[in-house]
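#help-structures

NK: newbie question. if I give both the sequence and a SMILES, will the prediction place the ligand too? trying with S-adenosylmethionine
OV: yes, paste both and it writes out the complex. here, I ran yours:
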Amino acid sequence: MESTIEGAAMPNAVILQSEGLHEYILDTAVYPREAEPLKELRKATASHPTAFIGSSPDAGQLMAMLIKLVHAKKTIEVGVFTGYSLLLTALAIPDDGHKENEGRFDFAFVDADKENYLGYHERLMKLVKFYKIKMAATSAESSAENSAETETLAAAVTLGKSKGN
Ligand SMILES: C[S@@+](CC[C@H](N)C(=O)[O-])C[C@H]1O[C@@H](n2cnc3c(N)ncnc32)[C@H](O)[C@@H]1O
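OV: that's the protein plus ligand as structure tokens.
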């Protein structure tokens, strides 16, 4: 089984209330399903001073499942960092899918400056096709005292609804 230290598991025990349970899920269900390029990227990112802001592989696999569920071909992402979520999106869309800067999108992922999420939401509601899925990473202040660290807790999924589609 893969070491979560080596793999830089995100401190995501807040939802599960148990770091041990989180590690068990990663070792038995998440890492075995993680594509090799994503594994390499995650390990390369682990030594980055702000590695904790990267998408976690478990959230990534949920995202990949959603992308496949809606047969997304055209996607957009705000907040790339070292590109884990970008790469998993590229691996999840079909060969004739693509990532673009403008146009109508099947899937949008926002994982950037949290204070601007309302603006991203309003813009993406116009860009994402009707009843496709918009996914935004949420964050919460770390419970550790005197720490400005935030950690990704979960992926909030909302149904996009835009006019004229
Ligand atoms: C939480 S990280 C993204 C993690 C990434 N999704 C992943 O899978 O590893 C947030 C990223 O958003 C970038 N960012 C912050 N504000 C931004 C903005 N206004 N526009 C675009 N990117 C922004 C940061 O530089 C950082 O790389």
